[in-house]
Design brief:
globular, about 250 residues, 12 strands, about 15% helix, mainly beta
């Protein structure tokens, strides 16, 4: 994972910024940051932002409230790369319907935007697994109205081809007891043909529809339309577990 640079943290009343450097294991053969690593950064930064306001994961768990990522969209101006110092900033965007929104932006040391991320989160009781309404959130929100280029949207493949089945194993499971979000991105990346994975990412979207657990099996489906790849993970009942779409450019 990325290493923090002197653990430098920059905070204002609404935003939280951390400076760090991607390591070799965080990157693919193009030296681009792996999508699953970027998503892990987002989750970690969101948690640390709350922790900086004394809203810890441990306390939230005790109070029966945790955030689970349901949708994410990433827009790349330039894909972050190995060993380049970065500044990643996050802020709360408020609520939208039954969910909470959070934004992220990644900049280089000159202040140029490399990518930004739009996310949506469900508030869930970890003990009963029931979804909580935003009005039930017991902590203070400090939303910021700043927007980003990336936008979460609904989407689905029209006629995807089944590539293979995958059964989730112990190492896929996180501390919440279900499959870690980054595992889905890794699986989706692995079924895309090499001639496309050799290209740089321009946009990426992933929608988490149903949680998966150890021992469950999903079919991995793929549809390619020019440089747009849409992948789905489906249970044997044909119900979708997740959908993933990425747009690829030759150069960024």
């Amino acid at each position: 994972m990325a290493r923090f640079v002197n653990r430098k943290v920059i905070m204002d009343s609404r935003k939280y910024t951390v400076e760090y450097i991607p390591e070799f294991a965080d990157c693919d053969k193009k030296y681009d940051i792996k999508p699953q690593v970027l998503l892990a950064w987002c989750a970690e930064l969101a948690g640390n932002h709350l922790r900086s306001r004394n809203i810890t994961r441990e306390q939230m768990w005790k109070d029966g409230q945790v955030f689970l990522l349901t949708r994410a969209a990433v827009h790349f101006e330039k894909v972050p790369q190995y060993n380049n110092k970065l500044y990643m900033t996050t802020w709360e965007g408020g609520t939208k319907g039954s969910q909470f929104t959070r934004k992220f932006v990644v900049k280089d040391t000159d202040g140029n935007i490399l990518c930004d991320v739009d996310t949506m989160w469900a508030l869930v009781n970890p003990h009963s697994h029931k979804i909580c309404r935003p009005s039930e959130y017991i902590y203070e929100q400090i939303p910021c109205e700043d927007e980003v280029e990336a936008k979460v949207t609904k989407f689905k493949a029209e006629a995807p081809e089944k590539i293979k089945d995958y059964t989730f194993v112990y190492s896929d499971i996180d501390a919440n007891g279900h499959v870690n979000n980054g595992v889905y991105l890794r699986l989706m990346s692995d079924i895309i043909p090499q001639e496309l994975t050799d290209k740089h990412l321009k946009t990426l979207r992933i929608n988490f529809i149903h949680e998966c657990r150890q021992g469950e099996t999903v079919g991995l489906y793929l549809e390619i339309n020019d440089k747009i790849c849409t992948a789905e993970g489906r249970f044997r009942t044909a119900k979708s577990a997740l959908r993933h779409r990425q747009n690829l450019f030759d150069k960024i």
